[in-house]
Amino acid sequence: MKHITVILVLSAAIAACAPKEPTESRQDLMEASRQELATAVSERDMLFALVKEIAVDMEEMKRLENIISVTPVSAESGVREYSQLRNDMSALKRSLNQRRQRLSAVEEQLQQSGLFTDDLQDVIDIMRKQLDTQASEIKALNTRLLKANSSIAALNTTIDSLNHSIDKANNQRDSIGRNAARFEEELYTCYYIVESKSALKDMHIIESGFLRPTRLTRDFDNSAFIAGDKRSLGALKMTSDKARLLSNHPDYSYEIIDNDNTKMLIIKDPENFWSHTNYLVIQTD
């Protein structure tokens, strides 16, 4: 709306300073008047062009202000968008400087001609004030953009820190999960072996002597044992009707039944059965 007002004022000012239509008594001055009119029209057109360009610059500033005020800048594209806005404002600032130089040049041309009036000076002053206002607005926009960029940088730092904390927490959770799985596996792992007395002695699992009872050794190699899961190992074939348990397990936690002339160990209470030892040793003879 402002630039329309400037155009109207400018038109009136140019019309006021345009030369009057020559009379018949001044035919010898017609050509000179035509030249003055052409000059006035040319300078008017230059001022009109400047007014339109200033209006375009005002629209561009509104666009940039809207981007800075309304459009969210994402963390991923923040650097690119910030750089683009800085470039746009730098280009607009250069454009305003060029407009200011052109306005000064037109003002000088008009002052040197016979067409310059106070009305034209008022129009030029209005345009110069508009350029000054636009320059101030660009400076303010640039300050806001710098603050926004600082805020984005701070947020990015916070996000990076949070991501690092999340990654660390995830790693700790995974480590705890792995340790828990390993602990659970160790907790429910049991070992059993079903062998003859001589085989058990050869593997240094049991020891016996004259008038001494058979018993488990303190430090035996468990590589000969079969690993199992306490939760799923509910029965075990003993391979012989003479088989017996050498390891220590509560009597009430299991029973031995006959199955086709072969004894079968049935674990009735796994928790108590394995409460004294994780090793089950069965001697078959």
TrEMBL record:
Coiled coil feature spans: 82-186
Domain of life of the native organism: Bacteria
Sorted UniProt keywords: Coiled coil
Protein name according to UniProt: Chromosome partition protein Smc
The species this protein was found in: Muribaculum intestinale
